[in-house]
Amino acid sequence: MGITVSSFCSVSLNPPLILVCIDKKARSHQLIESHRAFAINVLKTGQERLSELAAGHAGDQGNWLEGVPYREAATGAPILEDSLAWFDCSLQAVHDGGDHTIFVGRVEAAGHSEGRPLLYYEGDYHRITEPRPRPRGSPSSGKGRE
Fold first, then answer.
1. Cα dihedral 71→114→22→72 (10° resolution)
2. pLDDT for 83-138, tens place per residue?
3. How many CB atoms lie within 10 A of CB 103?
4. Distance CA 6, CA 53 (A)
5. Which of 46, 42, 49 is nearest to 112 (CA)?
6. Residue 63 confidence (pLDDT)
7. pTM over 0.90
8. Is the peptide bond before 135 cis (omega within 30 degrees of 0)?
9. What distance in Å separates the CA atoms of residue 62 and residue 136, rounded to the nearest whole number?
10. How far is CA 60 from CA 43, 57, 127, in A?
11. DSSP secondary structure letter of residue 4
């Protein structure tokens, strides 16, 4: 069985690779190393509690997937049935990053559904609504640097 990681760093399309950086103390670290696979599940707005469980920030961890509808992907990793998008990855490379390990996964399969992504930054959950207004004097979309 694989695992679901709580965040990812980068995605490439050709070749289809995903890079995740996992703290060596995290429960997911050992699982990725031993199972040689992981899943990325992009959560929807309204799934904050599931995000906290997956990240290990919700107290007793036991089986965090208990009661959560999921299916097992080809690699054995759990794909959440109600996720916005998902990537099933087999482990391609491992790099030591000090107190973290950088795992590179080859995307074996992917899918998506409808909804808005759940965003976590600056210590809180946010939702995408409308683009923020650009500061006066900044380049418009598609022109210059963003």
1. 10
2. 888 899 999 999 998 999 999 999 999 888 776 555 554 555 555 544 455 566 65
3. 26
4. 9
5. 42
6. 72
7. no
8. no
9. 51
10. 21, 9, 27
11. B
C-alpha dist (Å) from residue 131 to 84, 127, 128, 134, 146: 20, 11, 8, 9, 13
Structure-token pair, residue 85: 């998008």
Identify whether the C-beta of residue 102 lies closer than 8 Å to the C-beta of residue 27. no
In angstroms, the CA 2 to CA 31 distance is 7
CA 76 – CA 90 distance, rounded (Å): 10
Cα separation, 102 vs 32, in Å, equals 11
Q: How far apart are CA 35 and CA 27, in angstroms?
A: 13
- Rounded-to-integer distance, Cα 78 and Cα 63, Å: 12
Average pLDDT over every residue of 13-39: 89
Give the rounded distance of the alpha carbon of 70 from its chain centre.
15
Instruction: Dump strand ranges (E) for the chain.
Output: 10-12, 17-23, 37-42, 70-72, 78-80, 85-97, 100-112, 118-121, 124-127
Distances (CA, A) of 9 to 40, 104, 130, 141: 11, 10, 24, 24
If one counts every other C-beta atom within 10 angstroms of the C-beta of residue 123, the result is 5
